[in-house]
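Researcher: I'd like a structural prediction for the single chain below. Treat it as a standalone chain; there are no partners to consider.
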Amino acid sequence: MVNTCNELLACCLRGEPWTPEQLDRAIAVDEGRALLTIVVERLGDLFEPRLCRTYTELFSQVIRRAFPGLEARIRRNAEPPRPPQSTERVYVLSRVTLGADVAVTSVLLDAAKRRYPDAEIVLVGPRKSYELFEADPRVRHFPAPYARGGTLLHRLRASADLWLKDGIVIDPDSRLTQLGLISVCEEPRYFFFESRSYASDSSEPLPVLAARWAREVFGIENARPYIAPLEPLEPPAEITVSLGVGENPAKRLGDDFERDLLRALSETGGSVLVDKGGSRAERERVERALLPGMRTHDGAFAPFAAQIARSRLYVGYDSAGQHVASACSVPLISVFAGFASERMFQRWRPSGAVIRGDHPDVLGEVQRSLTYIGRHSP
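Model: Treating it as a single chain, here is the predicted structure.
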């Protein structure tokens, strides 16, 4: 049945029309989960303006068929509003995934705080996202649960349940609005950063593009990514490591590489703290690769993010940790594999040593980066 979604994706990529029967079959596969992961995520990961239009057409039809009560809230193309001189409240929508909330959402939080110094700034999204900013006195939380692994109907219901009656809303291409497709406030109060198509002729990463958009729309110069988690209770480590891949096995290079990677880090003589991840499978992988003397973090991501911020080096796959290190100006080594397109690689790469997963000698590149960082560290 997954082939049904692959066939639908092929139609989208070729610019060919799909049939209502194709769409109904795709919606039915695993209660819509396959449609979201195979079709919707791939259309976004390619970062092509043409496919943004395809997504809008496709998912508008999905809403009409799967949740017709939500059709009245499908957004039409509207002229972007002018920001008000002042406002009592600014809602910034979470991107739901932690890495994106650091790389993109936090840039817009920074811009909102500076543009409206007297306003209440509200992060709308899951608790785990808010925990990355919990120590920031300017930011409070508006809970909006959204299950990444939920059914299509559950995710559409989460969008339907969200309506913000006051202030202005900044949307960084959030899953809460199904990538800007579903209204969550009156249109004159809504500001949408369509990250998939913005500056399509540029190879710059998303934090840079989000800052450019904030300058164009709100007149704020040099908005930056940041985190503000609560202080961790555990002692710091010199090297922090995450082998997490966000449920995408294409991002990892296998058990042998992970054991060799941790061995190389151990040989630096620095203390090492390894995150055990958010799933049983990740926890088991970490336990297989660990060496004696290495500490582990097992639990919520925000305390580990705080540990990254005070470490001297971060090492990991393309995951949330690399964006935390980049935002905190911590030297990093990122092994970047499994990207759907060259534009996706450019958009999501962090600032630091980025090693492509298709390099013929990834471990050798890691070791060379370790030597370089060691020589140039203060």
